[in-house]
Amino acid sequence: MIKSWLPHANHIIKTIDQIFEFQTRGDIETDELVYAGTLRNLHTISESVGQIPNEIQEMHPNIPWRQIRGFRNFIVHNYLGNNIDINVIKAVLNKNLPELKEVIEIIIAQQDA
After folding, report:
1. For residue 81, which phi and psi values (nearest 5 degrees)?
2. Domain that holds residue 71
3. Which helix (DSSP H) or strand (DSSP E) does residue 3 occupy?
4. Is residue 1 in some structural domain?
5. How far is CA 36 from CA 41, 80, 93, in A?
6. In angstroms, rounded to a whole number, what is the distance separating the alpha carbons of residues 103 and 62?
7. Which of 36, 42, 56, 65 places its Cα 20 to 30 Å from the Cα of 104?
8. Once rounded to an integer, what is the mean pLDDT over residues 62-78?
9. What is the pLDDT of residue 2?
10. Is 81 domain-assigned?
11. Is residue 29 part of a domain?
12. Taking a C-beta distance cutoff of 8 angstroms, is the pair 55, 16 a contact?
């Protein structure tokens, strides 16, 4: 039986890969489509992370789960972009997304075992 949160975990992997693909097509600071696509995907990652059960999240305390879920509100409530610090977005892309992807891949592999 498929766990109800597993499609969300797979979606996180797919979305992170898509964000990395966006970065190969342009600069987030100068390309509006790359910027918009990246923010939209960060939004959906935040939503999907909220579907990962707490007991699984607790097994991976190195991931800032609460902050990732809260990032959705940050993006949504700053949709005009005037309060979004591009350096924060870059830090998320360069540091947090690779770590999150790695942990989600581990979580998925553990479910398949």
Report:
1. 85, -5
2. 6-108
3. none
4. no
5. 9, 11, 14
6. 9
7. 36
8. 86
9. 53
10. yes
11. yes
12. no
Q: 16 Cβ partners below 8 Å, 6+ apart? A: 41, 45, 97, 100, 101
CA distance 68 to 64: 6
Answer yes or no: is 13 within a domain: yes
DSSP string for residues in 81-98: STT--HHHHHHIIIIIHH
d(CA 45, CA 67): 12
Higher pLDDT, 71 or 48: 48
- Count of domains observed in the chain: 1
- Structure tokens given for 77: 């409530």
**Residue 62 pLDDT:** 94
DSSP, residue by residue, 30-99: T-HHHHHHHHHHHHHHHHHHTTS-HHHHHT-TTS-HHHHHHHHHHHHHTTTSTT--HHHHHHIIIIIHHH
